[in-house]
Structure formats: structure tokens, C-alpha cells
Amino acid sequence: MISASQRLWRTSPLTYVALVLAALMSIYPFYYMVVIGTRSLDSINDVPPPVTPGGAFGDNFGRVLDNDAANFLKGMMNSIIVSSVVTLSVVLTGSLAGFAFAKLKFRGQNALLLAIIVTMMIPTQMGLIPLWGMMQDLNWYDTLYAVTVPFLVSAFGVFMMRQYASQAISDELIEAGRVDGASTFRIYWSIVLPALRPAAGVLGLLTFMETWNSFLWPYAILSPENPTLQVSLSFLSYAYYTDYSQVFAATAVGTIPLVLVFLLFGRQIIGGIMEGAVKS
Amino acid sequence: MSLSATTAPPSPAPPPPDAPARRRRGYLLNRLDLKYSPYLYIAPFFLLFGVFGLYPMLRTAWMSLHDWDMIGDHTFIGLDNYSALLSDDYFWNALVNTFGIFALSTIPQLLLALFLANLLNKTLLRAKTFFRMAIFVPNVVSVAAVAIVFGMLFQREFGLFNWLLSLVGVDPVDWDGERWSSWTAIASMVNWRWTGYNTLILLAGMQAIPKDLYEAAAIDGASQWRQFWQITLPMLKPTFIFVVILSTIGGMQLFTEPLLFGNGNIIGGNQREFQTLAMYMYEKGITNLNTAGYGAAVAWAIFMIIVLVSLLNFLLVRRTAK
């Protein structure tokens, strides 16, 4: 006990100083966004720069809402729709395929799983240009289909569900279902999906965050009149880069939902990321 | 779990009196279900990935062999796009920029992540979860938001960084006016957003190292520093390779940070000081639709560079960590 506390004493002060510093640096830019977003425009010129939030948020955000060029609310709605649909689909198709790979036997299983793992390593920008052309042909340019349909499935989702299913669900459980005469889909719906819930939750959170934050593709395929939130923010920042209070108020509003989700489920998200790292 | 096992599956309906024919049909259905339903379950992934993932990728290769106008004609020109690429100054410029920003972001970032992961790995650390979450929170903020906030921090007249510099007597820097300064600004956005993520991955790798290795080393009187070099680093090799390859894939595709830093200018600064490869691909393939074939060649060049750099990193890390 003595040696343990001695070791704690010997290593701790500097360790904590370093970690607190790192935590401050992580949080500061986010905090700064809130400070500027809640202050009136002229306080930006203050020397030293302002460090506490002000009371002008309503005024700043009002300018965002009145701003016809940004379509901020529309962007917010679009992002909510797209992120929700994509998340639901990735979790369902991922758990279905993951279950098949982990617990069912079929010809070509290993080769197909390998194919999925390989696709995880492919850079996402590779198909950008032809995909843009395809959207023209489908008449999906500037529609939500363009930013939703290509992302309804995810190789990472299949792989993650497969990993979790193979360790969390015992073969006896599946057998018991079969003996009771349940069809394969019934087994998936009533036994597998409930057992996958923890991993499905993490996959859902990660997918939602990724979709909410994605930029390049929505930027390429949507117009400023029908943007996602991130695209709306970018146009706002181009056009009103001198009105920092307005841009920052909008950015804060677009960021806070995810930070809240993270505060609620951060432990699970971090656990999921760390587990995924060790396994792959 | 056992509860769901006993309650969840539906109990089958009692078999109808006129049994054999129905039972045989049930048996057949059951066989079909066992044999083919797995394909049904993996079909959504492969169908959608085939149409929106694999096909565009192959089409990128096909387009790159053409003089291709997205809304007009295309003619086959073989490898001409690629040979043009080799003597294209703007392409080399984008390549240099991408590697410069990549070096400025990856190297300090991974060193810092290694350092932080080692601190978080201490068994007696208090408030573990708090520190992990605090360090990871930048990754939750969107790239666009990060670029907007950092764009302001690096602003010339009233940005925080120039104010800090003025405290030590340095003249204000025109961050987006020059190559090295814009690279630094963009790399700092990448560093801020990804250090925590890499810290967690490395931490996970460290925690998978068997504890008795350290105990044995401690009994032999090895210092903590020595333990880090002799046990942690060599054992961390696979995780480190994973992190390096992930950073490479991300770094070679860098797009949003430099685009927003330059206020949406696809050429990245007045003199292309910070145009990256991905931005150049976008400029050629989407901003200018009539050079889509050339843009596709840039896309394949990026892919080949990623493969090469990953391979190089892999060999390098494996060699040095031996």
C-alpha cells in the first residue's frame, strides 16, 4: 500500500498538469466558439480578447435566421433527416449482415467477409467524380437522395456487428430458436437484434456523428438553397466572414447537439472506438 | 440474455391434424431458409456498395483514360492524362502542399498522442473517464466548424494567435498569405481534431499489453522510462502501424480544412499556397466539368500515393521498432 501511494505521489503531479493542459486545449476552441457566438460583433476587437460568454446570442442567432442566403433551418432539418435515415439503415443492414457472417453458414462466406474488410481501406474520395455524374443521370442532383442512398450501408458497420455477434451470441441460443421452429429472420429479430443492442447503439452513434459532420460530398452535390447543416455553415462563413458573431452563433448551434449526445453517451462511444481498435 | 432466449422465440403453432404434406412443405421451406437466407441478409450491403462504391471507383479508372467532358463528349486517349499529370506544375504543387501539411500534422500529432496515451495508461490515475472524454471531444466537432473557429483564431487583425505572438513581441503574421504559415494553420486544425482519437487508439493498444511484462521488468529494477522503450513501444507496433495508415489515408485526402481556410477558394490561396491533392481533383473534376477525365486521373494518383505511403510507413515502422 505504501509503495503504491508513493508511486502515485511520484508520478502524479506532472501527469495531472499535462492532462489538464491537454483537456483545456481540447475544450478551449469549442468554448471560444460559444464566447464569440454570444457576444456582439464589436467585442471582437477587444484587447485582450474576450474570455467569457456575453448576452447577445439571441441577437446573433436572429441574424442567422433572417439570413436568406444561408438557409440555416433548412440545413438543420435536412441534416436531421439524412443522419437519422442513414443511421437506422446502417444499423439494420449492418446487424443483419453481421449476424449472417457470424452465425450462419453459407458458401463463399470467408471470401465475402474479406471483401468487406478490404473495402474498409478504400479511400472514400476515389469515386467522387463519376458518382457526381451518376447523380446527374438519376436526376438526384441537389436532392436528399444523393446524400442518403449511397450511405445506407457501411462496411465498417457490417464488420463491427459481425465481431460483436460472434462473441456475444452463443450458438446454443440460435439452436434453441431453431428447435422451437423459428425461421432465420425470426431468430434475427427476436434473439440476435436484442442481444446486439449495446454494439448497435455505439454503431448508431458513430454513424450519426459521421453523417452529421460529413462535408465534401454534400458540398459537391447540394446547392446553397437545399444544403445540409455543414454546407450551410460553409456558405455562411464565406459570405459573412466579417460578421463573426453570426457565423459563430450558427456554428455553435450546429455543434451543440452532437456535444450533448457525446456528454450523454461518451463512455460508450469511447469504449466502442477502443474495442474496435484492438480487434482490427 | 437467458431470459430473451426462453421468452423471445415464438412457440410454434400446434401441428395441424392432416400432417404429412404440410410437414414436407415446411421442411422444404426450412431448407431453403437455411441455405439461401444468408445471401438475402448480406445482399443489401453488396448491392448498394456495388452500385455506389465499387462501380464509381472502376468508372474513375475508365474515365481517367479519356478526354472526358461530364456534360459532353469523351474520347479515348490512353494514358495521356497520366503523362500530362507528370509535367503539371499545379499537380506537383498540390502534392508538395499535401505532404507538407501531412508532415506538420501527423508527426507532432502521433508523438503527442503517444505521450498522452502513456499518461492515461497509468493504473492509479484518477478521473480517467473525464480525461478520455475531454481529449476526445474535438473529434465530435465537425470539420467545417473546426475550420471556421480556427480560421478566426488565425485571423490577422484580431486572431488569438497573433495576439499571443504580440505578447512576446512578434509582428502579426499573415497566416493565409504564405506557404509555411498556412500549412501550420491547417495542420493545427487537423492536430486539434485528431490527437484525441489517436490517443484513444494507442491507449487501447497499450492496455492490451500483458501486465506481467511490466511487473517482471519492475522486479528487475527497470525504470519507467526504460519500460516504455523496452516493452510499451515494441508491443505497440501493430497498433502504431494501424494509426499511421489511418492518418495517411486521411492526410492524403485532406480537403475541408484548407478549403474553408481559404474561404471556399478551390485553388487554395491566391498563389495555390495550400491547395491539396483532393482540392486539385475537385477543381479538375467537379468545378470544371469539361476536364473530368483529368480529375479522375488525379483521383487514381491519390489512391496510388496512399498505397505507396502506407507501404513505406509500414516497412519503416516495422524496421525501426524491431
TrEMBL record, chain A:
TM helices/strands, residue ranges: 12-31, 80-102, 111-132, 144-161, 187-209, 244-265
UniProt keyword terms in alphabetical order: Cell membrane, Membrane, Transmembrane, Transmembrane helix, Transport
This protein's name: Carbohydrate ABC transporter permease
Entry-linked PANTHER family: ABC TRANSPORTER PERMEASE PROTEIN MG189-RELATED, ABC TRANSPORTER PERMEASE PROTEIN MG189-RELATED-RELATED
Domain ABC transmembrane type-1 stretches: 76-265
Gene Ontology annotations of biological process type: transmembrane transport
Topology within the bilayer: Multi-pass membrane protein
CC per GO annotation: plasma membrane
Family recorded in the similarity comment: Belongs to the binding-protein-dependent transport system permease family.
Subcellular location: Cell membrane
SUPFAM superfamilies, sorted: MetI-like
TrEMBL record, chain B:
Key words, A-Z: Cell membrane, Membrane, Transmembrane, Transmembrane helix, Transport
Keyword Heme: no
Coiled-coil annotated residue ranges, if any: none
Topology with respect to the bilayer: Multi-pass membrane protein
GO CC annotation: plasma membrane
Subcellular location per the Swiss-Prot or TrEMBL entry: Cell membrane
Positions of the UniProt region annotated as Disordered: 1-22
Chain ranges passing through the membrane: 39-58, 90-117, 129-154, 194-214, 235-255, 297-317
Pfam families per record: BPD_transp_1
Predominant subcellular localization, coarse grouping: membrane
GO biological process: transmembrane transport
Biased composition (Pro residues): 9-19
ABC transmembrane type-1 domain sequence ranges: 95-313
Official protein name in the record: Sugar ABC transporter permease
Organism: Micromonospora endolithica
